Amino acid sequence: MAVRKHFFTSESVGEGHPDKVCDQISDAVLDKILKDDTHPQHARVACETYVTMGLLIVGGEVTTNSYVDIQKLGREVIEGIGYTHPKYGFDYHTCAIVNTINRQSPDIAQGVNTGGAGDQGIMFGYACKETKEYMPLPITLAHRLVKRMADVRRSSILKYLGPDCKSQVTVEYENGEAKRVDSVVIACQHTDDILDASGKHITAKARQEMIKVIADPILKGLADKDTKYYVNQTGKFLVGGPQSDTGMTGRKIVVDTYGGSIPHGGGAFSGKDPTKVDRSAAYMCRYIAKNMVAAGLADKFMVQLSYVIGYADPLSIYVDTYGSGELADEKLVKLIRQNFELTPKGIISSLGLLKPVYKKTACYGHFGRDEFSWEKMDKSEALKKQAAKL
After folding, report:
1. Which of 135, 133, 148, 78 is nearest to 262 (CA)?
2. Measured distance CA(131)–CA(140) in Å, rounded
3. What is d(CA 208, CA 373) in angstroms, rounded to the nearest whole number?
4. pTM score over 0.70
5. What is the pLDDT of residues 101-153, one digit of tens each?
6. CA distances from 228 to 143, 165, 182, 204, 321 (A)
7. CB atoms near residue 180 (< 10 Å)
8. What is the Cα–Cα distance from 125 to 280, expressed in whole angstroms?
């Protein structure tokens, strides 16, 4: 049989990327409200953040009986990311912060408070056997690379790195199985310490240092002599963060999910409380898909749910196992209905979504990390037993 090859690419961005700065601040606001509101089940948050050179604007609609000091919280998040000195082009000490948050519309509340979905929309979830995280390999490696960049910067292993960074990984597949990493993109903000005599490029030594310290530990066993590396490909990356580009909450939805391996419903996650099914139902979809794969019912599993504002139950459930399913699709849908809570209240309760865990989700992907409740595989044994009877 002829070998079928294809290449697939995913990207990730680090916590200092302008869009991710905004995601983290929006989710920090949500966490603060869930922590301090005396009735968090009644709190409503739709918080969006915008950042540009020297300016942060926090807006949206909120209903809460607690108080959030946006100035203090915003500066704490920016400091934690690493924008602590003017040399990075953005500084938590001196940036201006504007609060334009308003109260949520009562028209939305009258449908949501009775248990209905907070908006219409479609949500997708996915799991596969490609990695131990049940995630596609390209996005998993891309996340690990930007996380490695942050760790190397914070530990001063490479003292010249700044907070802004990006990665991209192209994986070569043979007959549907990942075989090797074909190319790697590393973009790291840095100080001028590592520029060559021309001032236009980083030195060859610094380039090799980034590959050795950042990429090699992550790509061990997957990179080979033919793997191509693109490190700060324009030559240098001195100007980064909000100084170089505006940022907004919710602009990295593919980075947040599966790296483009499956469709995306279009809704962003960060800054939204769990009555917004854009977020909570996407988490439930991941929970469903991961348990289905862990139960041995498919090697790859995608599920789509759809909702309408003010109505509790999903309008539709769709599954796709890419030909790897052990049961017919309609039987898999039956198992989903029997084993998973699919109303907004049911999702919030079964996954414990009123806990203030959301800022942690705002970097390095919302999926594939065991610290989150939607990554549990506690339904897999029950699914396996029930499937045997169908």
Report:
1. 135
2. 8
3. 39
4. yes
5. 988 766 555 556 656 787 789 999 999 999 999 999 999 999 999 999 999 99
6. 18, 19, 6, 15, 33
7. 16
8. 11
